[in-house]
Amino acid sequence: MSYQGNWTRRGEWLELMPGKALLSLPDRDEAVYQWLVDSLGMPEKYVRKLRHHKAVQWKADRLRLGIFPSVEAGIEPRWSDLEVLYEDDFCLVVNKPPGMAVHPDDHSNELTLNHAVAAYYESTGVQSAVRHVHRLDKDTTGPVLYAKNEYAQLKLDEAMRHKQIVRIYAAIVQGRVARNLKVIDLPIGRDRHHGQRRRVSLSGQHAVTRILSMEVYKEASLLYLSLETGRTHQIRVHLSHLGHAILGDSLYGGYAVAFQQQALHGARLVFRHPLTGEEINVEAPWPQDLLELKEKVQSKPLLT
């Protein structure tokens, strides 16, 4: 469900032209309610909220929706340079650097990506809550998607639940991966002997990782992977269990290399725009040190 017509943002209002058919109906308000649910995919609860706040209005033949209210970021703005990969009134995609968590935990005052996004919003005049749609591990680089209003968050969260947001990762792993390995379907649970680790466990949660393509070198392999499920450390656990731990991933047995974190990067993010349904395809540039590691494993033994 998406909107194919012209749209304009005017302050807190989204202006649409749903067509003359709605204007001519005897119970236009009820028709609009149904159109928002059926055509825009708005949850009924959210449409009722808009109506309660008088945020559904007509201006001549234009339907106005108050979906861009000014709201607090919900987190302290703390400046850090951000690489913005995509942005419009509904979505923001930023390239997360290594060593930065997406959101804060209860035990640390470290700068996180959400702090930096709040500062970015503040500097660019965006009055929106910071709403990340998915996460990356602290030491994994790549694109993170943010919803800039509640409607976008509802649509993108639904897309995540239905596995309609595609995240493709690049991983440099130890050993020569068999070319016929296409799917890793192994359940993942907690490691009782290590609070931070996960492990393959028959009693764990269903977890599926797909290998889309690979390059096999003398002592290492470059894999492009996608996730069907989003378990904690899923790619790292699956590959380590098969004897192909990610280089630099000391938690899961990866060889130590001249690299500051595990060699895992979110290479691409593909999602449908929450309003128009247009496919948005975002590629994230590789960090320079990861490019250098790739060149090294292509030409030299790992342990020299």
Automatic annotation (TrEMBL):
EC top class named in words: isomerase
Catalytic activities: a uridine in RNA = a pseudouridine in RNA
Domain Pseudouridine synthase RsuA/RluA-like: 92-241
Keyword Isomerase annotated: yes
Sample GO molecular function, one term: pseudouridine synthase activity
Function, in words: Responsible for synthesis of pseudouridine from uracil.
NCBIfam families to which the protein is assigned, alphabetical: rluA_subfam (TIGR00005)
Protein name: Pseudouridine synthase
Organism: Paenibacillus lemnae
